[in-house]
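Risk register update: the risk of archive-format incompatibility is retired. Evidence:
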Amino acid sequence: MSFNNLDALYRQVIMDHYKKPRNKGILEDGNLVIDMNNPTCGDRIRLTMKEEDGKIVDVKFEGEGCSISMASASMMTQLVKGKDVKTAMELSKTFSQIVQGKEYTTDLDLGDIEALQGVSKFPARIKCATLAWKGLEKGIHDKHSM
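Archived output:
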């Protein structure tokens, strides 16, 4: 597949998640609520998660922002739901490497998140793409450092 075709496919994946977000809403029985804000561009996200016995049982998001931040939140919730906390943190680290244009290796299924690798060409958008992921890390860190 040529680079132009791959780029177009990635744009389609991003727009699909933006227009039809997965796991959008509030998780009523969640035990973690994380509010994140990107003051640079105004993106804001609220994650509600239910974590039990080191596993992310469910996760949802709501918020407002650009297509990149909303698509990334959709992809993140889809990818980490049902995963153990350690795997979710590994995925977050890998995602950070992807959007920064760094080399990465993993045996984990990355789902649709590789579609955001083009963000590395636009440094101002990296914060948009990582907003939900930083929220995930903050929620896990806060819960496990109590």
